[in-house]
Amino acid sequence: MLISVVAPCYNEEAVIEHFHQRVQQVAEGLLPQGHDMEFVYVDDGSCDRTLAVLKRLADLDSRVRYVSFSRNFGKEAALLAGLRNASGDSVVVMDSDLQHPPELITRMVELLDEGHDQVIARRTRNGDPITRTFTARLYYRLVNRLVDVELIDGVGDFRMLSRRAVDAVVSLAECNRFSKGLFAWVGFPSATFEYENAAREHGRSSWSLRGLLNYALDGLLSFNNRPLRAALYLGLALLSCAMLYTAWIVGAALVNGVQAPGYVTIVTAVTAVAGIQMVMLGVIGEYTGRIYYEVKRRPHFLVKATNVERTKDLIP
Ligand code: UDP
Ligand code: MG
């Protein structure tokens, strides 16, 4: 049985060698049980020496495959490239910054051998700032009401997939890739276990607050059209309020005669309606924008260098 380890690397020159050492150790431990390992590293257009380090690793270790992008295409594209170029009977997807402890692979292999198609490592939120934990909880509660797939707090990309699960994920061709949701959408029997999250050893997280916000929105919009439905209901609710209010004004005018005041009412009504219309336009725009990107059918990434033979992705 061949296990592929897929790890996206973006400016990880400081940790990648250490990462490789650690997974190598795990690979040695799994060898007696008849498990071979290959390593698929995807350099996501790093601007440091990540590619040079990967090339050296490939020279030293024939099990190392690398794919290097022409520019930074983002982690989702890197994951897809890794999955496409992994030839294993099963694939472990993990970050290369050592926040996903490689030693857990042994446990994952055990669970996969028990017949699961996805073995998911779920990180605890110990050590995270309280505000972050709180907002994450709130977000997952909200988002799970809205989206069609189940997203679980603490579940990320650290997981092991069987060949058929990998093929299923790779067959989803959308440009706007929200992996958490794609993995959940694929389904198949899954097992989840918890692990303690490790702090980053070197470098820093590429997530900014804005990035996180956009990611949160992506999660909401990628897997359903309920926001559109919500916009419709909101519009109907507003219309009913307006009709009730009109009836009341007309009634009052009939009883008391016409009175002129109402400046505040008019301004409030105009601004509220304009605001709500803007929000609805935004929701529709988000979906239209997604359609726009999908219909262009551009490749998810461009490869500038790789040692994977017969890859379909290399642009000569
Ligand atoms: N990564 C990537 N492309 C990017 C950003 C990140 O391939 O544009 C990789 C990065 O090298 C790491 C993983 O994705 O292996 C997770 O990134 P990061 O540690 O920045 O995110 P966090 O752990 O904070 O969620
Ligand atoms: Mg990280």
Radius of gyration: 25 Å
Strand and helix order: EHEHEHEHEHEHHEHHHE
Q: Name the beta content range.
A: 15-25%
Coarse morphology = elongated
What's the helical proportion of residues?
Answer: 40-55%
Strands of the widest sheet, in order across it, are 7-5-6-4-1-2-3-8
Distance between the terminal alpha carbons, to the nearest Å? 33 Å
- What is the second-level CATH architecture of the largest domain? Alpha-Beta Complex
Individual helix count: 10
CATH homologous group name of the largest domain: Spore Coat Polysaccharide Biosynthesis Protein SpsA, Chain A
Number of domains: 2
In round numbers, the mean pLDDT is 85
Q: Which descriptors apply to this entry?
A:
8 strands, 316 residues, alpha/beta, binds magnesium ion, binds uridine-5'-diphosphate, Spore Coat Polysaccharide Biosynthesis Protein SpsA, Chain A
Structure description:
The chain has 316 residues and is α/β, with parallel strands linked by helices. It is built from 10 helices and 8 strands. It has helices at residues 16-30, 50-60, 75-85, 104-113, 130-146, 163-171, 179-186, 209-222, 226-256, 263-296, and strands spanning 2-9, 36-43, 64-69, 90-93, 118-123, 155-162, 190-195, 303-306. It has an 8-stranded mixed beta sheet, sandwiched between helices. Strand 2 (36-43), helix 2 (50-60) and strand 3 form a beta-alpha-beta unit. The chain binds uridine-5'-diphosphate and magnesium ion.
